[in-house]
## 1
Amino acid sequence: MTEHTADYVEGMVADRRRLHRRPEEGWLEFETTYFIAERLRSLGFEVRLGTDVICPEAVMGRDPAAVEKAMERARAAGVPQDFLDETKGFTGCAGILSTGRPGPVTALRFDIDCLPIAETDDPDHEPNREHYASEVPGLSHACGHDGHTAVGLGTARWASENADRLTGTVKLLFQPAEEGVRGAAAMAASGIVDDVDWFAGAHVGCGAAPGQVGVSHEGYLATTKFDLEYFGTPCAAGSPENGHSALMCACATVMTLGSLPGHSKGITRVQIGRIVSGTGRNIVAGHAFLALEVRGETTEINDYMAKNVETTVKGMAAAYEVDYRLTRMGEAVTYKGDEEAVELVKDAARHAEGVTSVVDMNAKVGSEDCTMLIRRIQAHGGKCAFFYFGCRHHGHHKPDFDIQDRTTLPVGWGVFTGFIERTNGRKA
Ligand SMILES: [Zn+2]
C-alpha cells in the first residue's frame, strides 16, 4: 500500500468509527447527514438536501413524531438549526461534483442508517476492544452502513483530489432508511438520478469473504412491507353481539395470508412478524396491529402477493365488520444488472488493492432497496451494477456483527474509485 492510499484508509477508518459511535435509525439520521454534508462541502461538492433528494409523497415508513425527537437530539448533539431547517425534516443527501468537462453522469449509492439492535458487550468484539462501540442504547450499525458511508466519504475525497483527471459529473447519494427498504423509492422519485448514465451500489459482507469482491448480475427478492390496523368495536365479553373483535379479524387474517398457495413462476414469501391486540381477558378487542411483508422472485410475483394481501384484508374486514388501514411501509424490486456496468465493476475489482478474488455473486434471498434507484436509472437507459465487498461479519443484523474496517473499507473504496476512473476518466 502506498503512503497516499494509507492516508485514505486512515481517514475512512476514523470516519467509520465516529459514525459507529452515533448510530441513527432510518429517517432519523440527522447527525449522520450533517457529518456527511459538511465533509462534502469541504471537498468542493455541491450538496443537495431535504426535498431536493427526497420526494415526500413517496416516503414510506417515516414517523413524524420520531423525526421531531431525532431533530431535538441532533440539536443537542451540536447540529446547527440552520442545517436542520435545510433538511426540511428529511435525512440523506447527494453530493455533486461537476468537472466542467463534458462527460457522463456517474452516481454511487451509500446507505447510512442503523438497526434497533443493542451491540454486544463482549470485550473481544472489536468496537469494544478499540473503544468505538455504539454510545446509543439499543441501536447499532449491525449491517455495516457506517462502513458504506465511510467508503462514500473516502470516494468523495478521491474524486475531489482527482477531479483534473475526470470528465462529466460524479454524484454521490447518501441514502436514508435502507432498513425496511423505505428510503430509496423516495430518493428515486425526487428525480435526483434522472440524468445518471452509470451507477454502482454495494453492500459489505453478505456472501463475500474477506478480500473477496462478489459482482452481482441479478438477484434479490422484490418485497412490499405493510403495516395493518383493524378498528373494531370493543364490548364486554358476556354480550359479544354488541361488538366486533379486531383481534379475531387479525388472527383470521394471519391464518389466511399464511396459507396463500404461492406462485408457479417462482419463489414467494409471506411473513406476519408482529401482532399486537387486546386489553383484557373479558373484553372484545377494539384494535389490532400487524406488521407483515411479502416477497417474490420477480417484481410481478411480488405484486401478485401484495395484491393478495390487499384483497384478503379487505375481505376479512368485511367479514368481521371492522374498519382497516393498510399502509405500505417499504418496497424494493428485483435486480438485473447491465452487463457493461457489471464488467466495469469487475475490471475495477481485479485492479483494486487488497482484493484477493473476484467472483460472480447473485443473491437469491434477501431484499435491497438500491433496486428502486436502479429501476429508475435503467428506465432512461442508464447502466447499473451492484457488488459485495467481503468481511468476517458473524451474521448481519446481529449484536456481534463486525467488519474489519482497516482491511475491508479499502476494498470497497478501490472498486468504487476504479469504477469512476473507468466511466469518467479523461482519455490521455
Ligand atoms: Zn444492510
Note: The chain has two domains: 3-220+334-424, 222-332.
## 2
Amino acid sequence: MSASASQPPAPTASATDPCVHCGFCLPTCASYRVLGTEMDSPRGRIHALKAIAAGELTLDATVASHFDSCLGCFACVTACPSGVRYDQLIEATRPQLNAPELRSPAQRALRRLLFALLPYPQRLRALLAPLRAYAGTPLQGLARRSGLTRLFGPQLEAMERLLPPLAPEAFSDSFPLVVPAQGSKRARVGLLLGCVQRLFDPQVNAAAVAVLSANGVEVVIPPQQGCCGAVTHHQGELPQTRQLATAVIDSFAAVVGPGRPAGDAPLDAVLVAASGCGHTLKHYDAILAADPAWAERGSAFASQVLDVHQFLQGLGLSEAFSAQLAPLSHADGTAATAERPLAVAYHDACHMLHGQGISAEPRSLLRRIPHLLLREASEAGVCCGSAGIYNLVQPDEAAELGRIKAADLSGTGAALVASANIGCTLQIRRHLEEGGHPQPVLHPLQLLERSWRAGGGQG
Ligand code: SF4
Ligand code: SF4
C-alpha cells in the first residue's frame, strides 16, 4: 500500500502489535456475525494488515473486499481488552481501498453516484422531488409487494426499501438564522442540521430546536451549511471530506462574529442531533491536520462540537421545561394510549456508543419523561447494519444485520424505539416493518419535545 500526499500513511506493523489475537472482539463484530469468516473479523483484518506491512500479503481486490465488509462500527474497539485502536487502523486503511483496481466498475460507479448525491441536500432534493408521489403511498406498497422493486438490482432495491415518506418541509430549510431562547438565556449554540437527516426526517431538527429553545438555549442555524462529510469520511474519501469540512466551518464563520448577522457573541458549543455526523465533526482536527491553512480552525471547531444529548444533560433540563413534561402518547405521539408505563427501547447508534462513548446521556434524558420505561435490547452494542452507505453497497449483509436488530428491539416488548442517528432510524424502521413489528422509531429529542408539548409547552 502506498500513500499519496492527500492520504495518510497505511497502518504500520507496530500499530497492530497490541493485538494478542484473543478473539474477545469477535462476538461483537457485525461483519463476523453475518459472514462468519476470520478474514471478515477484526482479528483477521489486523492479521492481514500485519502481513501487508511485512510484505507477505498484497492488497488485491479479494483482500480489499474483506476490509470493505467492515461496517466501521467500532464495537471491536469497545470490546478489546488490549486497547487495540482498530478505528485508527481501518481509518488509515480506507483510503487505500479506493484505488481503482480494487473495485469493479459497477462498484466504483455506485460509490461515485452516492458521493455526488448524499452530501448535497439540493441535489438530493432535486432527485427526490418527483418521488413524493411515490414514497409512502399505496403505489410504493404495490411496487414492493409485486416484486417490481427487485428488478432494480440489490443496491437500488436497498435504496428504495429505505425511502421514507417525504414531508413537505424536507424540501426547504425553513429555520430562521437565530431561534431565541425562551425565558432567560442560559447558553448560545450552533446547530448542524445533517444533510440526510434534514431530508428524510426533518422533524428531528425541529424537535431539537424546540427543546433547546424551551430550555433557555439560543440556537444559531447557518443557512449555508452543507454536509459535515460523514458519508465520505467513513469511506476514506479524504479530499472530498476536507472540502466539505472547510465549507461547514466557513458557514458558521460567515454568520457568527463581530459584525456578522447572528451577532458577535461566540457560541458555547456546536451541536448535532445525528450521531454519525457528530463523530465526524469531532474529528475535524484530525481531518484537517495536514492542511496548514485549516489545521487550527479545524481543531478549534472540533473542540466546540457536542452531541445534543451530551449538551442537554450537561446543561440540565430547566425547571420550567421539566415541570411541563407529561406522559407520552403512543405511536406517533398524538393518539393517546392507556398504556402506562410506556415502554421504549433505546437503540445505541455505533458512532454514538463506540465512536463517542455516549450511552448514559440519552437514557437519562428519556427517563425524565413521566411514565416512560426504558427497555434494553439484549445486543445493544451490535451494529444494525446501516453504517453510513454500508446498507447500500453491501445490501445483503446489511439486511441480515437489520433483521437481527429489529428482532432484538421488538423482542424487548417496547411500544416505541428511540434512535439518535438517521441512518439507524431508516434501517430499523425498514426491518421492523418488514418483520411485521409495528413499533414506530423516533429520535429521543422528538420524544422529549412531544412530552413537553403534551404538558402544555409551546414554542
Ligand atoms: S483486537 Fe483486541 S479483542 Fe480483538 S483479537 Fe486483537 S487483542 Fe483480542
Ligand atoms: S468496526 Fe465493526 S464490523 Fe469492523 S471489525 Fe470492528 S466490530 Fe467488526
Note: Residues 215 and 321 are 6 Å apart (CA to CA).
